Amino acid sequence: MSQFMEELKSAMKEHIEFMSDLVERSSGELRTGLQPAVDIFIGFFHAIDWKEPWLIGLISFHVALLLTTILSRKNINFQMCLFLVALAGVYFAENINTILASNWKSFAGQNYFDPRGIFLSVLWSGPLLIISIIVLVNTLFSLCQLMVKWKRAELKHKARAARNKQE
């Protein structure tokens, strides 16, 4: 029995060492692979003049929309309208990018609107998609609560019907 336990301990120790080495190598490769992306991401945000009034307005809009989403979490119909408006904003992002790219001199200090729409995707569509996900999760949560209420009411009804049948 003790020999079996020693073999088991030895096998477990080898397995733990193997897994530790695997995790260490994987995390090292992941850090090395993600470093250029992190550098580009940091460079992207440093290239933006965050004091431009239209950018402050855009961020304020997203904050107001997020607060509206959170404060209206009990009103599912309003939330569905918000969800559709947010997704419509994402849908029309390409058109918005085209319009803003041709008129950037009238409101911005530099042209942020490249043909691929990266800037607008990050600062317009990204927050709208996050808000849409919040609305969707809230709707699913409300749906689960409604299903629980419905099942409880159904069980109470069945119990009442069974009690009335016995009497």
Automatic annotation (TrEMBL):
<feature type="transmembrane region" description="Helical">
    <location>
        <begin position="124"/>
        <end position="148"/>
    </location>
</feature>
<keyword id="KW-0238">DNA-binding</keyword>
<keyword id="KW-1133">Transmembrane helix</keyword>
<keyword id="KW-0539">Nucleus</keyword>
<keyword id="KW-0812">Transmembrane</keyword>
<dbReference type="Pfam" id="PF14770">
    <property type="entry name" value="TMEM18"/>
</dbReference>
<dbReference type="InterPro" id="IPR026721">
    <property type="entry name" value="TMEM18"/>
</dbReference>
<feature type="transmembrane region" description="Helical">
    <location>
        <begin position="83"/>
        <end position="104"/>
    </location>
</feature>
<dbReference type="GO" id="GO:0031965">
    <property type="term" value="C:nuclear membrane"/>
</dbReference>
<feature type="transmembrane region" description="Helical">
    <location>
        <begin position="54"/>
        <end position="71"/>
    </location>
</feature>
<comment type="similarity">
    <text>Belongs to the TMEM18 family.</text>
</comment>
<keyword id="KW-0175">Coiled coil</keyword>
<protein>
    <recommendedName>
        <fullName>Transmembrane protein 18</fullName>
    </recommendedName>
</protein>
<dbReference type="GO" id="GO:0003677">
    <property type="term" value="F:DNA binding"/>
</dbReference>
<keyword id="KW-0472">Membrane</keyword>
